Amino acid sequence: MIEVFADVMKNFLEFFNGNYTYIVLYVLALIVMVIWMKKKDVTKNLIWMSILLSIVIFCPITAKIIMVGLGDNVYWRMFWLYPFIPVISVALTLLVSKVKHKLLRFFAVGMCGVFILLAGNSVISKELFDRAENYEKTPQYVIEVCNMINEDAKEQNITDKKLATCSAFLLYVRQYDATLKMENSRENIRGFDDRENASMIFQYLCGQNESIDYDELAELLREENCSYIVLDMEYQTEMGSELVNRGFTPVGNYGQYYVYRDGFINLMEPIENNEVVSQFATSDSGYLIGQYASLTGDQSSFYTITDTKGHLIVIDGGWKGDSEYVRQVIDYFGGKVDAWIITHPHFDHVRAFNTLMASENCPEITTIYASEFDYDQYKEEAKNWDHFEDFEDFLSVTKDATNLEYLHAGDSLEICGLQVDVYHDYSTKDGGDACNDGSLVFEVTANQQSMLFCGDTGEEQSETIIENYGEQLSADYLQMGHHGNGGLNEEFYKLVSPSVAFFDAPEWLMNPEGETTYTTPENRELMESLGAKIYYFNTAPNYIILD
Question: Phi-psi region for residue 302, left (φ > 0), alpha (ψ -120 to 50) or beta?
């Protein structure tokens, strides 16, 4: 019982937050009422009410019963029942009525008012109120972020919108938009939420933990079906990139608040509902080639080629954060990879492959094809942005592989019934970029049509490839070199003259704002002038049928 009484006193002291002026006033007012109030005055019931409340609230037995139902963490709400204002008002009125002189009575009333003002705190203060920024009387950042989430959810066909965020949003989101479910509540702010997952997510997002297990955070968010996450700028730099590495997609930001979507939600729906995929399902010949956007929101490279017999070829795969996406696409097309072609060991091409190869449940792969990089030469030439460690990771995950084959310029082979001709690899690289220019350039040919893949090969390699292969480069479909930003030269693209050009680029790279050094807009204009239809990540997954 002593512990219960201690809890009551703790709540009592926290309720008044160190300002005991009104407690003193309240007690003095009760004394005044006892001394001067007439026996038959009904307002004298306020005295009995105060006594009865004090007994109920401070008695350990009744307090324990109330705490069981109300909760010991919010027991302070019981102090709301005390009639502080009526008791003090009645007592002051009694005191003033004892003053006979009218002017002195007015002066006494004024002094009481001044005393009350000085003794308390104004409820209209900057700490409690802000000037309304809009008709909703909700902080503008909350409105903008909610609208951003709703627009994205509509585009992604997400109907169950659940948001995990830090404390700044908790008090306002559902005031503005009740369709957004919240993983966290105001109980998280007070530290009273007994839901373990919700508490851990809140602590991570608000930077309350000294170290963060990002794998655990991603797992918790998905376990709780959180479709959207909002991060404060203070935490988003590291946490945002780590979440992207685990399949969360950047949506945008408003001011200091950054929005991410769980990229695994409805992941296969765009494939299942694609008209070209449905059309191919009823075909008895040909090849389905698909281009996929990265969940990270950045440029990447991930293609699949499948036939009517269930064979599957994968080209590159993208970032580490795309690895689960790649796995699900592979599962969708049968779960087995007949050939996996790695054009070059750059982060946005090889990390998904490295991640899956290092995982316990790597898909079955019949043959791995790659460009044969010279370890010492590449290490000497590599720049910081090449992330040489990705090449080392590739070598590590394939060191015991008996199914790894290196392709070289001039090779001609058949893979899953397709004729594959290699036009460029690391060994034919003539200067240029250390990694990009060592990419495989190869053409896959079916019965009548072909598609040319250029990896990230740059302009400096154009002349050599043209000199060696010339008109042989003509193809119906083309994957643009280096995502369409830089890449091969105009003469090269004119020789290819495709009907469709694939740019492995997101919107920000295809249509950059303001002054820019990106050449994707110029290359897009060039390809359109050659009569090519343009596919890029904005409409991905994009499919064509190779006959």
Answer: beta
